[in-house]
């Protein structure tokens, strides 16, 4: 039998063993926890971000599904950083005193898309429409801030529509109405107007913005001016976005606007990614069949065409071009919209070659609905509406071309240097309106480095003024387009100075008046 001391020592030994086991277990648990924390931290910090575009398959039942897919791909921005660790370290480097001072404040940006027959009698007298606007195309009336009839002058002045009698020394203000405000909207801006052919209605186009949700609109309003002393608003229609231009043809208003897809778009909410027409609170999207979208969407802006009755503002139809620019040309029957993009291809010897190209799409507006009738792609870019003209079944277009080539100097398989070269010039194209094939053209007719600055089409004749600022001269070229596919042309000489106003159709270039040259002998 063990003594008391032996039994005490035995108990002490067991306690010591137990304590060692506990310390070892705590160390193991701590190590395990640390290891688990490291694994979790690595998972959080170093697992790569997903770079695939969001899934939109849930919208397959929508008539806009193919459009949603293109918008989804075009607007998705891949993560800037590979993982959370790269993101956090980059943020640490970017923290500056300026950032703390700014406090993360941001600008207040709009959420929405983000421009004569005898008249009936007035009592016992008649009033006849008189055209005073310098229209590009006869019969295709452009908006203005001044219109007139035989009896009255209609003027937009300081957001008022003012009507003056035309009576020589006895002319006076006979009526006015404030048009700078729209109910439920902030102040109207960029006001322009039309006067109906019977001189009874003024149609006003303006940009405005909702006070409630800051959605941008183009507002079209009609005013009865039969009695100038009592002007009454008779209707209004809204299109989301902002105005580009407009035309009035045979009493039909062709409104051209732009709408930009919202950055916070939601494909379940059409208003965030589709242009809409109507009145706030009761808007209809442009029909899916009327939206033209290229396979390669290069930007998220629509050019929107809306056809309305110039008096009642009844909407006949609407159409939209996605990824198109602001350049619009309106002929007596068709509307032409342009889309500029860069074509890149591999050339011989490992060179890269790129050039600017333009797709022109055409919509006919003469029928009850807007109808897309064809498209064509040509080299170069279109400067403005005056560089396009439809005449005798042919669309004539002047473009400025820009081509770049890149060559690499190699050391074995490693690129050690590179060289860019650029070529610029001017082209003229004649395009069939039947099948949108190119009937004829003159390529690179100007001196190397020149671009088209001013263009005028006059029947079968065309004048093109090109310029390169370095040379400070303006060559002017004449083209005879009467015998297609043959085109005869000549350089009519140069003018000192260079084009800056782009107002060739009014005969102005760098302060010198352009004189029409004698026609070349056939």
Description of the molecule:
It contains four helices and 32 strands. The strands form six sheets. Strands 19, 20, 21, 22, 23, 24, 25 and 26 form an eight-stranded antiparallel beta sheet that branches. Strands 1-2-4-5-6-7 form a six-stranded antiparallel beta sheet, with no helix packed on it. The chain has a six-stranded mixed beta sheet with strand order 3-12-13-17-18-16, with no helix packed on it. Mean pLDDT is 80; it is low at 93-125 and 501-522. Helix content is 14%, strand content 45%.
Descriptive labels:
disordered C terminus; 4 helices; mainly beta; 6-stranded antiparallel sheet; single chain; 522 residues; 8-stranded antiparallel sheet; 32 strands
Quick overview:
The chain has 522 residues and is mostly beta strands.
How is the secondary structure organized here?
Blueprint lengths: L3 H43 L18 H11 L8 H11 L2 H6 L15 E5 L2 E6 L10 E2 L3 E4 L2 E6 L2 E6 L7 E6 L10 E7 L5 E9 L6 E9 L7 E9 L1 E8 L2 E9 L15 E4 L2 E4 L5 E2 L8 E9 L5 E8 L5 E3 L3 E13 L5 E13 L6 E9 L8 E4 L2 E18 L2 E19 L5 E5 L8 E8 L2 E7 L5 E8 L7 E9 L11 E2 L2 E2 L9
Parallel strand pairs: 16-18
Antiparallel strand pairs: 1-2, 2-4, 3-12, 4-5, 5-6, 6-7, 8-9, 9-10, 10-11, 11-14, 12-13, 13-17, 14-15, 17-18, 19-20, 20-21, 21-22, 21-24, 23-24, 24-25, 25-26, 27-28, 28-29, 29-30, 31-32
